[in-house]
Amino acid sequence: MAKDDQAAAGSQLILPRDNPEPRSPEPRSPEPGPGRGSDYAVLSRRIKQAGLLQRRPAWYIVRISLQALALAVGWAAFLVLGDSWWQLATAVFLAVVFSQLGFVTHDAGHRQMFRTRRPNDRVGLIIGDLLIGISYGWWVGKHNRHHANPNNVEEDPDVVIGAVAFTTDQALAKRGLLRVIARHQAWLFFPLLSLQAAQLHVQSVRSLLRQRGRAAVLEGLLLTGHLLAYLGAVVTVLSPLRALLWIAVQQGLFGVYLGCSFAPNHKGMPILSGRDELDYLRRQVLTSRNVRGNRFLEFALGGLNYQIEHHLFPSMPRPNLRHAQPIVRAFCQQHGLPYAERGTLGSFAEVLGHLHAVGAPLRRPRTPSAPEPAR
Asked: Taking the domains of the chain in order of start, what are their residue ranges?
């Protein structure tokens, strides 16, 4: 593997110390063929020469401070409004704030804020576990495996989801209720996203219960603190009916927001397997899709609209991604690599179209078997 390919692999997520969650293998590349081994190295040198891998701690400090202020304002409004139906507005507002904090946790996991591991992990633990209730250590391991092998049906956990099928084989293998869901999964996609936050909370707890060590204890304490404060505030301020509705709206929209931010990035792009021998550059570019838009879209999606650039350079700070895009796009054109970029509606149309096509075999009427000939 070329030196810069190794740097790319090394920029993947690092698990918190003492966390026994198994690390995912670094991105693997086959032996480079003629003229291919140095492609990523050339691109990496251009990005480094442009200064786009330099950390932006001041930018993140300002961003985190503003988000902390928004979180405080949201919970203050919640306490002031009391047992009122107007609380649904705070549920919507805090769903947005939780999602924005989730983007910061994502950046911390990639070490985009600070060059050393410890300050990034501290930010990730405080925001991920304490403020939004998702295990930073568990998510780091999961996301690391995704980055190492995006859209690989054998190794990417993001394409091995019980409720959704991303290949025909996955759809045909489902049984019972999951088969019914897969049959109509394009129509059910957004309703299913409303359960995403709950699934993240459950997986976080399950992961920590399987672990030992100081990191697991620390995360357990932080998650418990979040749960007690969150439920304590809701139960104390709201009546039982309003409390249940408030949690459903806040967590449901939190899940939809996160799902809509991640779904356009890879869903509907080529699905790989262990038999596909691609180098690091091509594996990341061919399986990723950018979402075209303005600065507001960049803010709304936490910079994930630059998915190709992010997958090529995971440790690149979020504000630098838009500056890297012209360099990466031109490089892909120069080397004959398809650079997938769609508008917001176009990207979701491709995602839903792919899911609808995958579920098609389950919607076909069964052909009655022919009767056996009389003997």
From this structure: 3-362
